[in-house]
Every structure is written in structure tokens, then in C-alpha cells.
Design a protein that fits this description.
The chain is mainly alpha-helical. It has helices at 3-10, 14-22, 41-55, 60-70, 78-109, 122-128; strands at 30-31, 37-38, 130-131, 137-138. The strands form 2 sheets. It has a two-stranded antiparallel ribbon. A two-stranded antiparallel ribbon has the order 3-4. Strand 1 (30-31) and strand 2 form a beta hairpin.
Length: 162
């Protein structure tokens, strides 16, 4: 099948598929006489796997490690368990950050209980002075962060050493 068919089947963007190829997550497909990419069932299954991992907010490095283990079924999956445990920890941390963000937004919303002119809006006043946990004010408060891609994630799992 051609790239457009694969994209429709997997619910992916053509550019995303090309990116996964360039990044090494999808194997380079064969080419037709007209130089079109030709994908097979292996590509379909792998793209579904990648998309499922992405739907779980896994990084490309984490997916790369998981693909290594998927392709090496004889290896022990203890590192897969550790990777997922670590990812669960990132999700739990993100949930805490989002709960704190919600609390801050609700506190901010309570500053303006009724409609009035913007010059006297408690929300706008509150946004001018950020409130950090503990009631202190600061001119700049760092907001919640998604877990950043760890450039060493592949090295942390023994099964993916080259």
C-alpha cells in the first residue's frame, strides 16, 4: 500500500509517517518502479504500536526502547516494566501539577465574582502578581511541565545497548 493508504488506515498524517521513518521508528519501506513508498503489514502493525504508545504520552525515546524489546522477544522484560513504572510516575507528577494549576485558576477566578470594568477586574490584577504556593508573590512563576524527553532513556535500559 502507498503512504496515503497507510495514513488513512492508521489515522496518521503522511508527514508523521515520514518523520517516523526518518527517526528510525518505522523501517524504510520498499519503493515501487515509480519510486513510491510501498508499505506492508509490518509497517501497519508497527505504526499502530507507535500511535498507541503516543496516545499514552510516551516519548519517542521510550517508544524506541519498547520497539527494541518487541523485536527481541527472548529478552527479559524487567526493563519494560521499569520504563512503564517510570512513565506512570511522570503521569502522576503531571496530574499533581494539573491539580495545582486548577487550584490556582479557581483561586484566580474567585477574585472577580461579578462583571465590572476591566480596570477593576480581580483576575487581571491577580495575573499581574503571580501567587506561588505558600502565599508568596513573584513576578515569574514556572508553570507545570510535561516530562521532558530524556536523551539518556535508551541507555538506561540494558536491553537496548548497542
Amino acid at each position: 500500500m502507498k503512504i496515503g493508504e497507510l495514513a488513512r488506515l492508521a489515522g496518521a498524517n503522511v508527514e508523521t509517517i515520514r518523520f517516523y521513518e526518518r527517526d528510525g521508528l518505522l523501517p524504510v519501506p520498499a519503493r515501487s518502479d515509480g519510486n513510491y513508498r510501498i508499505y506492508g503489514d509490518t509497517h501497519v502493525q508497527r505504526l499502530f504500536f507507535i500511535r498507541r504508545c503516543r496516545s499514552l504520552d510516551m516519548t519517542l525515546d521510550e517508544i524506541r526502547v519498547l520497539l527494541h524489546f518487541k523485536e527481541s522477544p527472548q529478552e527479559n522484560c524487567a526493563d519494560v516494566n521499569r520504563l512503564l513504572d517510570r512513565h506512570i510516575g511522570h503521569v502522576a507528577q503531571r496530574m499533581q501539577e494539573l491539580q495545582e494549576l486548577e487550584r490556582q485558576l479557581r483561586d484566580l477566578r474567585e477574585r472577580c465574582g461579578e462583571a465590572r470594568d476591566a480596570a477593576h477586574c480581580g483576575i487581571l490584577d491577580g495575573l499581574s502578581q503571580a501567587i506561588v504556593p505558600g502565599g508568596k508573590t513573584a513576578s515569574h512563576v514556572q508553570g507545570p511541565n510535561r516530562h521532558a524527553a530524556n536523551p539518556n532513556v535508551e541507555k538506561e535500559y540494558k536491553g537496548n545497548q548497542n
